[in-house]
Design brief:
The chain is 39% helix and 18% strand. It has 206 residues and is an alpha/beta fold. The strands form two sheets. The chain has a five-stranded parallel β-sheet with strand order 2-1-3-6-7, with helices on both faces. Strands 4-5 form a two-stranded antiparallel sheet. α1 runs parallel beside α7.
Length: 206
Amino acid sequence: MSLVMLLLAHPRTDSYCHGIAERIGERLLRLGHEVRSHDLYAERFDPLVPPFESHTSGLAIESLLAQEADPVLALHREELRQADALVVVHPNWWGMPPAILSGWVDRVVVPGVAYRLAEASGFPEPLAPLSELFVVNTSDTTDERERDLYGDPLASIWGRCVAPYLGAPRVTRRVLRPVAAASGEQRRAWLDEVETLAAETFGAAT
């Protein structure tokens, strides 16, 4: 494993998600990985999909998508092409990622970058397959309520919807909850746990 793309999606600069992303990134660097970290809000990533990007299949759309006028978007697409792994840190909002991260998927995980799709109803051909997809979510929903009422839609979003278009990488996901009322001691313990999980998942760079 050499190049890891790390995405953070939380609007508050003092958020717990920021601390999580920092710990993961620092540990991966110490393990010898190259880490490209992106705070989507700080970079003001544009999540709005223009009309010409709304097609999902066919070679013609690949040519259109190659015309990347936005330098931030172009950078993210190129790094995803090169990446061996993707780390994503974000809160659970309404059972979904924040809109800026959903927009990142819409605009970066696209034909000609992550996959090729001959027809809309077909199966994706990976163009830049990842080995690992590592996701950490924060939530204020209890385990019981998530299980019995909501069914953890984020597990489906990342594991069953997004991952196949990234070459079906191994998916490792950890949910920390409930965060809002957690003590400082608990938060520090979670940071240690996530850092250890990242180290176990990625290992030392070879």
